Amino acid sequence: MQKKWYRLDTAALIFPAIARRDWCNAFRVSMTLSEPVDPALLQRAADDLRPRFPSFFVSLRKGFFWYYLEESENPVQVQKDYAYPLTFMSGRELRRNCMRILCYKNRIAVEFFHSLTDGHGGSIFLCNLTARYLELKYGVSVPCEGLILDRNQHPPREELEDSFLRHAAGSALSRHEEKSFLLRGTRDGRGFRTLTTGVVDTGALLDMAHKWGVTVTALLAGVMCESVMGIQSERRPRKRCRPVKITIPIDLRRLYGSKTLRNFALVLNVGADPRFGDYTTEELCKTIWHQLCAYATPQHMAGMIAANVQPQQAITIRLVPVAVKNIVMNGIYRSIGEGGGSLNISNIAGLPMPDVMKRYVERAEFIIGPQRSYPNNCSVLSYGGKTYINMIRNIRESELERRFFSRLVELGIPVDIECNRR
Amino acid sequence: MYCVKCGVRLQDGVESCPLCRTPVWNPDAETEEKGYPDHYPHSHRESSLPIAAALTVIFAAAALVLLIVCLRLYGELSWGGYALCSLGLAYIIGILPAWFEDPLPEVFVPVDHAAALLAVLYVCLKTGGNWFLSFAFPVGIISGLLSTALICLLKYVKGGRLFILGGFLMVLGGASMLIELFEHITFGTPMFLWSLYSLVGFGLAGLFLLLARLIPPLRHGIEKRFFF
Predict the structure, then answer these.
(1) Which of A84, A180, B27, B150 minimizes the number of CB atoms within 10 Å of its CB?
(2) Contact status, residue B134 vs residue B177, Cβ threshold 8 Å
(3) pLDDT of residue B228
(4) The pTM is what?
């Protein structure tokens, strides 16, 4: 039987090209259950999901002109979790499967190569995997609510589509923007990723955000911006400072009503320029919130989508061999890809799921790996009245985490700290 | 248990605050279970050693076949010497760095130049030419020094890339005159046949980059128009 294959979506094209021998763009979503996970049952649950989520059980293949995803012959094996999240996915591994299912004690985690899907798609897959596991383990019936999809339904075409192509504007927005301050540090040996999790009461976070009239994402981005500015001011005189911008992924499904499970998010770089004066935390949060309101609109994002879609549709680019495209894409990524922001804050607000699942799920987390050029990243997920702020880094220095979480405490938001490095 | 410096609450059993490294002392606390196991991945890098080894075998086999064919047909190396030199050069430039996990360009570029000079010396001796010492050697040394200096400056000097590239282009223009001088001495060709053009061309390009570095509107204009 002929294997199914899928073109990479517009956002996914860049990830195989920029992957290096020790780095690739990946993220992880996890759920902690009330009881230890049975790996054999989890394996069965994963196998059961294969027909419903065909675009997840794939391997990365190289064509002459483009990379593509091909239905994988190899089952996704449930593995034991590692000492740190998001261990390197090698090219050999991606040629077998583009995701990993890991378990450790009560936790189920899924790590995705970013060409497969984005945070929203990953959350849907994890919720459905956990739901199937709970059905097998406890015999409960999980209704198709929230992120849970009908397992017996054939995957509709709209879940597999590249939604970028449908929503691109006629004209493209320029990608040019001033480079942001980049954090630096001493690289950790053996590719170790240090994960510092700040557990915060969601109510306290919301109260603070509402007090200043901003969203939780804007509040966290404002505090982060202040922390990065503090680090920069210690290293450079004000005249030589650079703007500090936080990269915030915008889930375009909410703007355009798409149901795709592939990538459908774009990033906005928002922040402030310390050369023009000092900002209070409230001013930073408000300026970031206003920037998000101004730019996260369907029209503006359509222009940004067009900037990504138009080049890949040009016949002169489509006819270039993939090896040459890789070199060009690497150059583009190096010059404009990550320079616009100092770090990411990726916020999956919550995981809507049926009440029957909530009884078994104690905690949920979302972790994005460090980018290629900057060492820190931050991801946020709220579940069960708690917000889990995961800060990951591939350097030894914890200065950014210290400033960020201490500032939250100073603002009256208690923080519980957990770390995978003891 | 709280960190006295950061104010954050810490997990029981930690020895120091993960944020500020302030030691924590709480003898009554029981150690909480670790959030992650002590299970490390085998290797986080894909090694290039197998490819390097395979290519080495292919090159060695090609060199051996070449040697046997030449010795059987002509009883001497004949043209095979040139082919062996080319093979060796290609190996040193293309495959030798693959044996190293992190090959340093500031080491390999001078090595490549030295190998190229040796190959050229062989050709010179074989053809009975009298041009190695007065032409090929100084040109090779100039090229090696300039390219190694450029790599080191770009790698180790932070910022000022336009200055470095501008200065390099101007020095390259000057070096082209030196090369024509060696050509004139060795082969008796007329002086200033081509080097003046390259001096002016490289000099102007270098000057433009230096000006672009010094004049922000010009730099931004270039970025805007040549942005891709």
Answers:
(1) B27
(2) no
(3) 32
(4) 0.73
Which residues does chain A have within 8 Å of residue B3's beta carbon, measured at their own beta carbons?
Answer: 417
Q: What is the largest CA-CA distance in chain A?
A: 65
**A312 shares a domain with A360:** yes
Give per-residue pLDDT as tens, B160-179. 878 898 999 999 999 999 99
Residue A287 pLDDT greater than 90, yes or no: yes
- A66 shares a domain with A162: yes
Instruction: Based on the fold, state whether residues A194 and A148 are members of the same structural domain.
Output: no
Domain assignments of chain B as residue spans, ordered by start: 130-221
- Which of A223, A316, A405, A407 to mutate to probe the B interface, most B CBs <10 Å? A405
Chain B contact present for A420, CB below 8 A: yes
User: Is the Cβ pair A401, B223 closer than 8 Å?
Assistant: no
Contact A81 B37 (CB under 8 A): yes
Contact in structure between A381 and A404 (CB atoms under 8 Å): no
Tell me the nearest-neighbour CA distance from B153 into chain A, angstroms. Answer: 19
Structure tokens at A53: 């989520």
- ipTM summary value: 0.76
pLDDT in tens, B144-155: 999 999 999 988
Please enumerate, as own/partner, the contacts of B58-63 that have beta carbons within 8 Å and a separation of 24 or more.
B59/B87, B59/B90, B59/B91, B59/B95, B62/B87, B63/B87, B63/B88
Which residue, of A110, A136, A166, is where some domain finishes?
A166
Q: Report the number of distinct structural domains present in chain A.
A: 2
- Residue A183 burial by Cβ neighbours in a 10 Å radius (0-12, 13-18, 19+): buried
End residue of a domain, out of A145, A166, A187:
A166
- Which residue range is the domain that position A78 belongs to? 5-166
The answer to whether A198 contacts B224, with C-beta atoms less than 8 Å apart, is no
Model confidence over B49-79: pLDDT tens digits? 888 899 999 999 999 999 999 888 888 888 8
